[in-house]
Amino acid sequence: MKVRQMKITKKMSVTELLEEMGKSGALGAGRIYRATQLMAEVMENEDTTIFLSVAGPMVPGGLRKIIRDLINDGYVQALITSGANLTHDLLEAFGGVHYRGVHHDDEKLCEMGMGRIGDIYTCSEDFEVFEKKIIPIIFSISKNHHHLTIKEFIKQIGLALDDDESIIRTAALKDVPIYAPGVIDSMLGLQLWMFTQENQLHLDAVGDMHLLSDQVFEANKLATIILGGGLPKHYALASNLIKGGVDAAIQVTMDRSETGSMGGAPLEEAKSWAKARAGSSLVTVIGDATIIFPLMVAGARAIITRE
């Protein structure tokens, strides 16, 4: 098939732009188009369970409402993410803000009480509010539950929130599990550790594996949508090893494969571990998820609505 040159017209929709990328079919444009088509296919298939794996600063990077809406609209059956993304969701739920701007001297930023993630900035005062509000929630949870899985703990936090735009609250209300195997490696984990210095609360990470494996075995088909890599990606894929691997997967990453990193590993590599089935539908898109994922979601939603 020959590469067809893309045509940009006035007032064209996102779907039309993606279709032009599909007509080209080459390089990143072709990958985004194929990933969008696959995303629409798994989203509209009621027999397919979708695990959304989210690493990196996706919440502070602007994807909070997109992820929340996918959960609220029934397109995600499990969210697997880092403790950091949960922390930043809570920071906004408690009234905090993520700022954007140009780079400054990092030592001066520290003196100003500002933390930096790329060109995203957070204020230490917002984390002070976070600390003041999360501790009473953890204390309330601990009064009724001394032993919880991480998933159950996160759900209890969600039920205590009153922010309808929160990922954690929406997932709790929709009974969509959030798995965060590395939750202790975050500001939320730090507060939890500080709380347990004088209080009793035990989180069971192994218990989550029982619940996650139940979801895997109960699914007719299972697809993963992976933003970034690392622990959330491996947790999502490895959970399917016991059933022969996922049926479909989409990955958006900027990591490279030469160092053997999980983030940079091509999805095809998962077949060698039986984390992806032989014949499974796999698309990897190389690029910034804060650019690519919104385009894919917009395109997939438009395809589903149109059909």
State the end-to-end CA separation: 26 Å
Estimated share of beta-strand residues: 15-25%
Largest sheet: 6 strands, parallel
The amount of helix comes to: 40-55%
Radius of gyration: 20 Å
User: What's the SSE pattern?
Assistant: HHEHEHEHEEHEHHEHEHEHEEH
Oligomer: single chain
Average predicted local confidence, pLDDT: 90
Categorize the overall geometry: globular
The number of E-state strands comes to 11
Short description:
The chain has 307 residues and is an alpha/beta fold. It has helices at 14-24, 27-44, 59-72, 83-93, 106-112, 124-144, 150-160, 167-173, 187-195, 205-218, 230-238, 289-306, and strands spanning 48-54, 78-81, 99-100, 114-117, 120-123, 147-149, 178-179, 202-204, 221-227, 246-253, 276-286.
